[in-house]
Amino acid sequence: MKIGYKLIAEAYSPAEMVRQCVRAEEAGFDFVEISDHYHPWVSEQQHSGFAWSMLAAMAAKTERIELATGVTCPFIRYHPAIIAQAAATTQLLADGRFTLGVGSGERLNEHVVGQGWPAVHVRHQMFRESLEIIRLLWQGGYQSYEGRHLTLEDARVFDLPDELPRIVVATGGARASQLAAELGDGIFTTEPRTDLVEAFTAAGGQGPRYCEVPLAYAPTEQEGAESARRLFRFGVTGWKVQSELPNPVNFDAATAYVTTEDMRQAFGCGPEVTTQLAAAQPFVDAGYDHLALINAGTDVDGFFEHFTTELAEPLRALTPAG
């Protein structure tokens, strides 16, 4: 079991994200994962720094902790050739500590380049082609590719690490889990769903299984729930909403009726270890072995201290029920 920390790049400045990564290493976390967004989700967040610049700074300022994107869409806003180069460079700068988390994206971030937002079945096709291009470029040498949606012309990534980054594929269904087994090295999800793990392993997948555990550390449960509503209420809308809305104002409208009680039901709110363990247990039961803790609460540094002194040991001791 590895325990990570979610760097919420939409809620904090780039410099603060780097500082939190350093603090996470000091607190004993095994990895951090950072979102790769162009826009924040809701109007209260007010940040969205460039993930790859922050990752470079994190690599320079840490020694042990693993780094990951959680997650990058490798098409539309980017071309997969750029992500192949960026991930290889980050792996070199981090001395082999980087994992490339990838997914099929959200309109929130991808529409900004004016190329439209394809239907979901087209996005899945583009996602596969993107992974094929990244794998091709990581073979070394000059490469070309002509797919249904994406092309690559005589390109080469010159600086390749001896150990390539792992590719962890975000999944919300059997097809994505099977793609992760075929072209990835692991899966990434935000739900404690056993079926996603089973589809991955049934297709031959043997790599790490990442997830995000929703917590909101605060002096009281109510304060935690209120902070979670302010910063993370978009998370209870479901993927069909999250992938389709274009701007924070749209998410503000879509989440206007989300209550603090809704957040209390979805997040482990407050200071109690038992509450936090209860939020993590379903993910452990479902077979996930890389738990990234979200802290949507009011006290960032207090949570790091809490993790070190109270939460880390019992969390690492969790085993599947039964």
Question: Can you describe what's shown?
Answer:
Helices cover 43% and strands 16% of the residues. With 322 residues, the chain is an alpha/beta fold. The chain has a single domain, classed as Luciferase-like domain (TIM Barrel), CATH 3.20.20.30. The chain has an eight-stranded parallel β-barrel, surrounded by eight helices. Strands 5-6 form a two-stranded antiparallel ribbon. Helix 1 crosses helix 2. The longest helix has 18 residues. The chain is globular, with a radius of gyration of 19 Å. The chain starts with a strand and ends in a 6-residue tail after the last helix.
Task: Itemize the secondary structure elements and their pairings.
Elements: E1 2-7, H1 14-27, E2 31-34, H2 51-61, E3 66-69, H3 80-93, E4 98-102, H4 107-110, H5 120-137, E5 143-146, E6 151-155, E7 166-170, H6 174-183, E8 186-189, H7 194-202, E9 209-216, H8 221-232, H9 239-242, H10 248-254, H11 260-266, E10 268-269, H12 273-285, E11 290-295, H13 300-316
Parallel strand pairs: 1-2, 1-11, 2-3, 3-4, 4-7, 7-8, 8-9, 9-10, 9-11
Antiparallel strand pairs: 5-6
Helix vs. strand class:
alpha/beta
What's the architecture, going by CATH? Alpha-Beta Barrel
Give the strand content: 15-25%
Work out the oligomeric state of the chains in this entry. Answer: single chain
The helix/strand series, from N terminus to C terminus, equals: EHEHEHEHHEEEHEHEHHHHEHEH
Q: How big is the Rg?
A: 19 Å
User: How many β-strand runs?
Assistant: 11
Describe the biggest sheet? 8 strands, parallel, barrel
Task: Please tell me what the overall shape is.
Answer: globular
Average pLDDT level? 97
CATH homologous superfamily (4th level) name: Luciferase-like domain
Tally of discrete structural domains? 1
Q: Supply the number of helical segments.
A: 13
- Quote the distance from N terminus to C terminus: 17 Å
CATH-defined fold name? TIM Barrel
GO molecular function: oxidoreductase activity
Pfam families: Bac_luciferase (PF00296)
InterPro entries: F420-G6PD/mer (IPR050564), F420_G6P_DH-rel (IPR019945), Luciferase-like_dom (IPR011251), Luciferase-like_sf (IPR036661)
Protein name: TIGR03557 family F420-dependent LLM class oxidoreductase
